[in-house]
User: What shape does this take?
Amino acid sequence: MKVGVLALQGAFKLHVKALEQFGVEAIEVRNLENFNSVEALIIPGGESTTMSFLLESTGMFEAIKESSAEGMPILGTCAGMILLSSKITDGRSDQNPLGLVNIETRRNGYGRQIDSFESDLSIKGFDRSFRGIFIRAPLVEKVGSEVEVLAEVNNRPVMCKQGSVLVTSFHPELADDTRIHTEFLEMLSKS
Amino acid sequence: MDEFSHDKGTRLVKRGLAEMLKGGVIMDVVDANQAKVAEDSGAVAVMALERVPADIRRDGGVARMSDPEMIEEIKNVVTVPVMAKARIGHFAEAQILQSIGVDYIDESEVLTPADEAHHIDKWKFDAPFVCGATNLGEALRRISEGACLIRSKGEAGTGNIVEAVRHLRSILGDIGKISQADSAELFDWAKRLQAPLPLLQEVSETAELPVPIFCAGGIATPADASLVMQLGAQAVFVGSGIFKSEDPAPRARAIVEATTNYLDPSIIAKVSRKLGEPMTGIEMDSIETRLAERGW
Assistant: This one.
């Protein structure tokens, strides 16, 4: 089982580390060739404007959409959530979302770095709380009826799932807790 | 936002932002127009300052924190994090930068130091700090004062990569040696590097710095970015190298692509074509002020 981690920029090494704890082969994905060798993809935290620029220049933007339509499991954290959403507010004017989860996101919707925070989350299906680390996190402003909301902060969704795509506005890769990666790998084994 | 239990300014939250900048390019910008060009070219963050280091070097005089109005203007036009510089030891400038919502404060040797003995106590701030270092001892002293990110100093405003390479090799080389040292040797390392023992013990165990390490000072070409990334830098700061070149936007994009694809010379060859003249650059023997010697 090969799981790709989009390595254009951002916290990709931390996701690779988390996957390796499960003995999963993690591939850093920088181009189409890398992407075509993987069965699932993680889009890490980072700057979504930079990643969308590089996704387009490498031709991976369309490839990810096509693979997702065929059922490829995808996990997006923070910037990953923004890129996977159906509409981005306060992004760069030419920033196209992948549109694989029917949610609308506002970049830095919780404020600037000074407002970044940690909070204990209760996540559907988890028996104890998960420490969510929110860094210049996106705010989910609208959720389509086909989207399952798995966790909320202040009555706003922070973890959502639609089909084979799982997204979080926080950074499970920064927490010393791999339960969200476990959840994702279970989705993968079922697909 | 205040109706639920949450913690701000924690170590994870402050150090976490640097994780998100890894593999990216942070660009110096002097106005809103340049900031926009930087963001559109794929910068992960911008450093707002009134004069790029090459101009500070040329003009001389005391270099201070930028006008908050100018920083605000830049904040208003970009969505990526905005960094700004405070003088070494000038905690009042840092307080101002934090109060206007700057995302990262650079306690920087590029500005004229305000205190000859003390750096800022960075633990007191909720905003994260980046500091420069020329060697491992200096890096660990800054981390002990609360820096969340270290950048190799290089020699800012020269367009010459030689000093950045020296500093990176020194820091990462010593980390390699310390990871091989036995516990008794660590006491001697702590003495020689004038660094806190607990931090050295942590470095010895993990074989890496407790915070990310980026490279600054002299990057002018896509090949320079690839060089320092291959040496072990986790992201790059480009100061004068972009907006002091002939054609900034294509050069900025090329350096972004080179930083992501630093291991693939064929991509770097492709993006390096027809970029126009890079900044002129200065040979080390001909400079009067070594900015890297500021700070201790």
Observations:
- The first helix of chain B runs from residue 11 to 21.
- Chain B touches chain A through 43 residues (CB under 8 Å).
- The CA atoms of residues 96 and 209 of chain B lie 29 Å apart.
